[in-house]
Every structure is written in C-alpha cells, then in structure tokens.
Amino acid sequence: MQLTDLYQGFRDPATIHSLATEIKKLASGLDTDVNIMEVCGGHTHTIMKYGLLQLLPENIKFIHGPGCPVCVMPKERIDHAIALANQPNVILVSLGDMIRVPGSTGSLANHRAKGCDIRPIYDPLDTLKIAEDNPNKTVIFFAIGFETSTPMTAALIEQAEQQGVNNLLFHINHVLVPPAIDAVMAEKNAKVNAFIGPAHVSVISGAKIYQAAVDQYSTPVVVSGFEPVDVMQSILSIVKQKSANEAKLEVQYTRSVTFDGNVHAQQLVNRYFELRDEFRWRGLGPIAKSALKLKDEFIQRDAEHHFKSVLPTEPIDDHKACQCGDILRGLASPKECKVFGRGCSPQTPLGSCMVSSEGACNAYYRYGEIPHA
Amino acid sequence: MLDANKTIQLSHGGGGKEMDQLIKSLFFKAFDNPILRAEEDAAKLQLSGPVAFTTDSFTVSPLFFAGGNIGKLAIAGTVNDLAMMGAQPEYLSCSFIIEEGFSIANLKIIVESMAEELQQSGARIVCGDTKVVPRGCADGLFINTTGIGRIIMPNISTKNLSADDVIIVSRDIGRHGAAILMAREGLELESDLTSDCASLWPMVEQLIAANIPIHAMRDATRGGLAAVLNEWAKASNVGINLIEKEIPIADEVKGLCELFGFEAHDLANEGTFVIALPREAADGAVEILQRYGHCEKACIIGNVVETHLGKVVLTTPWGSHRYLDLPQGELLPRIC
Questions:
Q1: B32-69, pLDDT tens digit by residue?
Q2: I want to staple A339 with a disulfide (CB 3.0 to 4.6 A). Which of A100, A227, A343, B239 is the partner?
Q3: Rounded CA gap, B225 and B241, in Å?
C-alpha cells in the first residue's frame, strides 16, 4: 500500500461536497451563529489551506484558538533559549519553527548566524546522538509542544537516564490544552459555543480531557482529525448537536482516539513531569497549572535550574501594535489586526502568530481569505 | 599520476607541480577541448549576435544525492539558465573551491559526471580556476560555473505573460528538494526517489525547432513552482490560476511532504521547467515535450487571467480556492 492511499479518501471531492451540502441544510434551520473554536493551529491550517470556509454557510464561524505551541510561548521564554544558546560549550536543540520566533534580541536563527550552535531537529531522540557525539559539551533540548509531543521528550529523558548520557539537559515548555480552553471561556466576551479538539492530543491524552469543558460550558466538543473530510465531518457533528440542542463529547477521529488515550505514554509523562504552579502564555497571560516541569528528582537535568543565574525572569510583553493576544483568545481575527500584512508579515513578524506555520496570522497571510467562489 | 586513494592537500592549489598535476590529469582530461588545451590566460571565443550570460555557485549538501551530485548539478544548473532564455549553451567556465583533505576519488567522480552532463547540451568548459582552502574553511567542495550561449529564440521574458496564456510544467515537481531532504543527516528515510537533476537544453531545442511561441520559460529551482509563478504574476502584472489536481507529483514526493508538512510546489527542482505560451500552441508543446523530450508527464496545469493581479490562485479538487504564496524562510519540518 502507498502512503498516499492512507489520506486520499479523506480528501475526496465528492465526500467533501456531500458533507458541505448536509451542513448547509442543517445549519439553515439554526437561529444563532455557530462559533467554533478550533483549538489547534493544525486545524486552522487545514481550514485555510483547503479553502473550507468557502464551502460553509455564513452562520458557521471559526474562532482560531491558542493551540499552536510556538505561538503561545512568551518572549521571555524565547529569551531563555537565546541565553542558553549563548553559553560557552552549549549546543541548543529544538524543533521546527521555534528557530524563527523573535525574542527581544532577535530569533534563534539570528543567534545561530552569530555563531551559536543551534540545531533544529525533527525527532527529539536525535538529540541523544548529538549529546553522545559531543561529550565535552552541554546539550540542551529546548522542549516545546502540547500533550502530543510531551511523551517524545519523556522518552528522550528516559533514554538519557538509562544510557547515562549526562551532558543532556532539558528546558521544559510543555503546555496543556484543557487549561487553555478554560482561559478562553473565562473571558467575559467569549463568543465560542463549540470546540473542535485536536486528534493527536487525544491519541495520547484520550478524549476524556474535554469532558469537563462539555459539562461546565455546555458546548459540543468534537475530537477531530486533520484532513478536510475529518474537519467537515466534525463541523457536521457540531451542527447536528446544535440542531438537537445538545452538548456532547464526540470523537470523529475514531481511527486512533479512545476515551482513555495512550495510558503507556501518559505513565511515561507522569514519570518525569509534574504540573507547574503557573505558566505565562503569550496572549493569555499566566494560567495556573497549565504547563509541565521536570520532577525534582530530575533536577540535575533541568536547564532552568542549572543556568538560573543567566535566565531572564521579567515577563516581556508583545509589541503594542501586535494583537496576537486577542487573536489567541478568540477576540479578534488576524485581518482585524492593524499591522497584519503591513508591519507584520512572515519575513518580519511582530508576533508569534505570524511566525509559526501553525499560527492563525501565518495561515491567513499565506492562503488568503478568498471569498465564496 | 594523481593517487585516487589520497586527499587534496593545500599544495594542490599552490600553483606548483601538484596543482599542475591535478589540473592536467583530472580537469583537462575530463573536459578536453581545443580552447581549454590552449592553456592561455583567458579563453578566446568567437561570438556573434545576441548572447545570454549567466553564473551560478553550487554548495549543495550532501555533495552526493540520489540522481546526481554537485558536479552534475553545476553543469545542468548553468546550462539550464541559458536554455531558459532560449539560448544554446556553448561555453562554460568552472571554478573549484576545494577544502583541504577532500577525497581525490570523490573529486574524480564529480568531475567525470560533469563531463558526462556536458554531452547533454554540447557545451564546453573553456576556462577554470582551482583553489584549495584550509580544512574548515569550506564544506568539502564548492563549484562555480559561468556560461555563455547564443540566443536562438529572443523575447522570452518573465514580463511576457498575457491573459489567455496557459501554463505548462515539463514533469512531476519537487523531486530535487525531496531527494536532498532525504539524503540529509537526521532524516533517515529509505526510498527510490531520485532528483530530477538534468540538462534541459535538448527539450528546449525541440520546442524552438518546432516554432513554439514561448512567452516565458523558467526552470523551477529554489522556491519551486510557487516561486516561478509568483514571480511571473508580479513581473507581468497578471493573475495565474492553477488546477491542483493537474499538477504532476510523484507518490514519493507526496509522501515526504505529508510526513514533514511541506508542499511539493515549494520544493526545489533541477531539471523541471515551466512554460507560459498562447493557448492555441499548448497542445503542440505538450506533445513535443512528451514525444521528443522524454517528458512523459508534461501537461497543462493552469492559465493566465486578468483578475487577482500579481497573485497565484490554486483551485482545490473540490472547487475551493486559495492563494499559492512564495515559500518563506528555511524549510523546517513541522513540529506537531
């Protein structure tokens, strides 16, 4: 079987059209707007890249959520990465887009150009080889991501522990989806009345993590895959619930998501991590128990502990003109930001929503908002 | 004789006996022709009429990849820049910047594939230079080639697109970028995917011989198909519509894009070109490419319009539209 066979059915034009027709039919009977927050930037990407908005009726609206790990990192944490990379004999390793996000003295890419040893990787386990190949250097894995990527960091710690790779440290920025949903709903002007949850998070954590949101806010939550058919099916499920005046937790991504998730991965995460008292999210501000840190027994691997004296502690706010905060809270759309496409573009981003390919501003800038055909 | 088991020393660039040996037994032997053999300070060329003139430096990492190496690329790249201007590639210069310690056996393989690639277009290397830099001052080997060609079909330009032109692509896109990504350290994948690296003059020669009225022609190198079309849309102040399902992409490239979150139209090509030409000439051009140019996958992928000026719009298989923007920044794998 070809890899392409795996997704072709989820991009089938006839299926997409019939889902669009059914959504339109049902939504025409609703007397209020359906304001769906797709929590994850990957879904924003799917919606924009595949032009799904053009297939939907006007009373179905999207509010782009805070589920982009790069976008929610406050500037002071980026400055941590830069400060670490500038230490003598340090190799800083991180994933993907992190390398482009501007801190207060440029991005990691800028500092790499100045001579810092900064290496983007795809698989966190590659960091182990970097540490083994450079026994005289301190290798720091700058860990970012939601529940999806945390087990990979935990697996890396486990390998380092088992193999006694002692020159590998960690700077942990793993964040959690449910507290972010609570922060969005705590907003007085919150318009969101339905959620699409990211399937890859629930492959690990299970669909159960959204039950509290369903119960507390009486909103439908559908755990969805990332292909266009997945998203259209999830929208249809939400519209069906709205028509029946229901608020349920549903799993669209039945091909891998269970209610309880991957218990083994959860155990691995719990072995090494515990909740932080508080983490400051870009745009959302400080949220209690919304992120993870290394357990005290692994403090010898904690770069935040080791390099405490050189890491900045003051919060740094975004550029005043940048509305990433409102966008991440669902209060503004990218196009409402005054600097969108003018002072702020992917080449010269003012805020993180424009930097990351998962960011809402980046998706709008890249794919445009082409009106109905 | 040069010992293939040995490595390049600083003395190979010192202007003395070792350098002479390297040049004579390797470069002259592979690129032999009367102009080069004359060994003057500069090559003497016979030129008349309009000529195209281009230069390019090659720093690809890794130096060897599926479907080619830096040498093949250095010839095809410059030959293609000339061909895309409707010029027959004739004379090339070639400069090597070699890092001390580079394997002579590998240098030999690279030089031999350059000689082989030259045969595709009939171009000749008529002058060159060799520098050896201390270890750590270069990444193995850098090559610069500069080329001159006689313009046979004038008036090909990025500014020449007009409404009702159609867009043709010569083959499936994204292969070179995908092959390089797969060969890079860290992405340990196995596949039969090869780069499209090739000289395009033989195909272009066929199109010119058949009097195909080409408005614009460009090899879709760095930045891929997306970069070429965006550049054209802006330079000619037109809009371009693309039909996504018509764009040929190999399954291996699709698979890699799925894994890493790339898009095939952002990936580099080194032997794939795009043509804009009047609609009535399009079928003829596709037939020539397919029948005589070994471009079995050549096809029409879109057309030029007078709306959305300066922008490229992609139509999805289910009829929705989106902009196809220029690729930006480093191509980094997505994180989740």
A1: 999 999 989 999 998 989 999 999 999 998 899 999 99
A2: A343
A3: 13
Prediction ipTM score: 0.80
Q: In the block, which residue shows the tokens 């088992």?
A: A162
Q: Top-level CATH class of A32-68+178-251?
A: alpha beta
- Cβ of B329 within 8 Å of Cβ of A347? The answer is yes
With CA atoms as reference, the chain B residue closest to A150 would be: B336
Confidence band for B258, pLDDT divided at 50, 70 and 90: confident
Token pair in block for residue A125: 């386990």
Burial class (CB in 10 A: 0-12, 13-18, 19+), B211: exposed
- The predicted pLDDT at position B188 comes to 64
This prediction has a pTM of 0.87
User: Chains A, B: CB contacts under 8 A, how many?
Assistant: 100
B332 touches chain A (CB under 8 A): yes
Domains contained in chain B, CATH given? 10-151 (3.30.1330.10), 165-323 (3.90.650.10)
Residues 269-328 of B with CB under 8 A from A: 311, 313, 316-323, 325, 328
User: Of A69, A109, A366, which has the smallest distance from its Cβ to B335's Cβ?
Assistant: A69
CB contact (8 A) between residue A370 and residue B321: yes
Q: Which residues of A touch B259 (CB under 8 A)?
A: 3
CATH H-level superfamily of A75-175+261-310:
HypD, alpha/beta domain 2 (3.40.50.11740)
Extended strands (E) in A15-167: 34-40, 60-67, 90-95, 117-121, 138-145
Strand order in the sheet with B141-151: B51-58, B141-151, B87-99, B124-133
Residues of chain A with CATH 3.40.50.11740: 75-175+261-310
Neighboring chain A residues of B311 at a CB cutoff of 8 Å: 368
Q: Rounded to a whole number, what is the distance in Å from the CA of A246 to chain B's nearest CA? A: 31
- H/E/C letters for each residue in B152-187? CCCCCCCCCCCCCEEEEECCCCCHHHHHHHHHCCCC
